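Quick sanity check, Xylulose kinase:
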Amino acid sequence: MSRTGKVFVGIDAGTTGCTVMIFDEKGNAVGHGYQEYNCSSPQPGWIEQSLDEVWAGICSATKQAVARADLPAEAYHSVGLSSQRGTFGLLDENRRPLMNSLVWNCGRALKSVEAISAEFGAAEHQTHTGMTISPLWSAAKIVWLRENRPDLFDATRWFVNGQEYFLWRMGADDWATDPASLTLNGMMDIAKLDWSDRILSACGIGRDRLPPVGTPATMAGRLSKAAAHETGLPEGVILCRGAGDQQCAAIGAGVIKQGMAEFTVGTSGVMVAHLDSVDRIKGNKLWWGGHGVPGAWDIEGGAFSLGASLRWWRDHLGRNELDDAARRKTSVYSVMVEQAHNSKPGANGAMFHSFMASQVTPYYDAVARGGFLGLGLYHERHDLIRALLEGCSHEMKMVFDSFQSDIEGGITDFRLTGGGTKSDGFVQIMTDVIGVPSTVTKERECTALGAAILGAFGSGAFSSIDEAVGAMVQVESTFEPNAKLGELYSEQHAIYRGIYEAIAKSGQYAALSDFSQKYQ
C-alpha cells in the first residue's frame, strides 16, 4: 500500500473480546489488534458485561492495531463500528452506566417474556418484529428489569445498544442507532425499520428513553481529542455507524445479493442471508431485520454457543492442549483440531450437543443445555474433541436447513467466516456435516472488514456498497463436502436432532433449569 493511500479502521466489539483491524483500499489488512475481556454470571443463566471493560478493550485493541500499522496520521480516513446486538446498557442522564450491560445470551427473562406474549400472538409478533417471541431478546429483559429491579428501571434515562454508546465515547455527536443493530432487541417494526410503539408499550418505556433509529453506514461525527489519546487514532478521523456484528460480517463476506449467505463462526454462530424483499420468506423458523446495506433486509438464524463451546473446553478441560500449544508456539484451537483428526469421522459414537447457552434456530429453546452423549469406556480424549467439533457443526446444519426451507430459492452461494474458520481442518468438518460447498474469504475477520467497508462508504470513499465490496472483499478458496462421508453424517445428524427432540419433548430440559434455579 502506498504510504499516502487511504486506510479504513474496522472495530468489532464482540462478546469475549474486541478485534480492531486497519485495511487499505483493496481490503488488505495492514494493522491488527485484539483485547480479550470477560462476561460475568452472577446467577446461573445470567450473563452480564461491564461497558467500561469493553471500552477499555476497544482502546487497547485499537492502539495495538495503530502501532502495528505504523502509518502517518493523514492515511486514516474513517472508523466503522460493529457491535453486539441484543446486548444493552442502562445509562443515566449523563450517559454513565448504572450497571453492567445485559448480554444477548442472558437467560434471566424466562418468566418476564409473558408480558410480550400477552400483547402478541406468536405469528403476529414475528410478522410485526421479524422475531419469534423469546426471553433472549432485549424486550423481555427490559420487562424483567421493570418487574424485578424497578429502582434501576426508573433510574435509567437511556436504554442503549453498544454501538451508539461507544461512538459517543469516541466523540460522535449524532446520538442514534440503526435497524441493523436492533435485530436481537425484538423491539422493531420490521416494515418501517423503526422502533415498534406496541413493543415499547409492553416494555413500559417510550421513544424518549431510546436513541432514534438512524441509517447504517452514515457519518456520526469525528474522533475527539480525548478519544484520540485513548485509542491512538488521529484526532478528527471520521466516525461512522457500521451495523450489528452479523450484518457487518455479511458485508465483509460480500453477501449483498439474493441467494448469498454467510455463517459466522465466532463466540456465537449466526447465519445471515441477503433479502431483496421480505416477500421471499416462506417459513417462520428464522428472524429478519435491517441489513447493513441501507434500506435492505437480512434474514438470520443462530447457534449461540459455537465458539463459546470450544473456549469452554479450552478454559476448563483443555490443559493438555494449552500446554502443547505453548510448547509448539501455536494456537490452542489448532491443537484441538489436530487432536480431532486422530479420531474417525463420527467420533466412535461420541456426540456433543452444543446448546451451552440455549438452542436457538430452529427450536428457540431457552432452557436447553449441552452435553456429551454416548460415552463409553473405550472413548479417548481425541474422540471427545472430535465430537465437540462435529456437534457444533450439526447445530450449524440445523440452522442451514432452516434457510433452505424458509427462503424462496434457498441458498446458492454459502460462505463461512469468523475466527472458527482459521483452521482448514475445522472448515472441512463443517462443510462435510452441512453437506454443501463452502467459500472462505481471504480475510477471515469479516466482521471487522465489514465495519471498515461501511465506514469507508459512509465517509464518502466509495460511491456505493457494491463498489466498496467489489474493491475490498477477496475470495480465497472453496471447500467441497466429502461425498464418502455424506451417509455417515446424515445418519449422525438424525440421531443428534432426535435426541434433542426427545429430551425437550419430555420436559427434562425445563426440569433441569428449574432444578438449577432452586439449588443455585
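Posting the structure with no commentary besides this: The first helix runs from residue 51 to 69.
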